[in-house]
Amino acid sequence: MTTAVQLSSQLAVNVLDARSLLSAFGVLGVGVVLFAETGLLIGFFLPGDSLLFTAGLLCTGTAGHGLKLSLGPLLVAAAVGALAGSQCGYLLGRRAGGSLLARSRSARLHEGARRAEDLLQRYGYAKAIVLARFVPVVRTVLNPMAGALRVPVRTFTLWQVTGGLVWSLGLTLAGYALGSSVPNVDRYLLPMVAVVVALSLIPLASEVYRSRRDAKAKEERG
Question: Do residues 172 and 52 touch, judged by C-beta distance below 8 A?
């Protein structure tokens, strides 16, 4: 009877809500979601940023609702899911080229693909691969785009591992740090998640601003 109740709860999970995912699947769910978001085009809508931050927060046991995760296994699951997913997406892109994107009818996914390709062309492989980790949807489509565009395997692997570790471990530890230091942090969870998502866009915004400033300076000199 208990097993049936647990199964029913998992089937009723809201995949767009970080707390719902964590309540149903725990640490294992973090790895699976990050793998799907970064490695499979169908996972572009999954809440990677908020999931990592909320999971880190729940490791402190201060968020209520009787749910507490273990930090060590969580960090391992987050890193493995993020890195393995990205590498999988790259390999799929190398084998299937652009056909995977061509089959999708999602306007949001195609817009993300255009932004990913623009990142690769404008900032070079290293910066683009790292920056993409912090931009929803773009972090999903850049990996197969990099494979389709034949980014060298060693180059992609080096920078996706660097960006993936900074992103997955950084957001998780940020949630853990805040949960450990802020009393009744559960009250402020939604605003904090919004701030985290906004902050994750700063690296890309900074690069866009710098690129436009340099382009304008060249025009003025020319």
Answer: yes
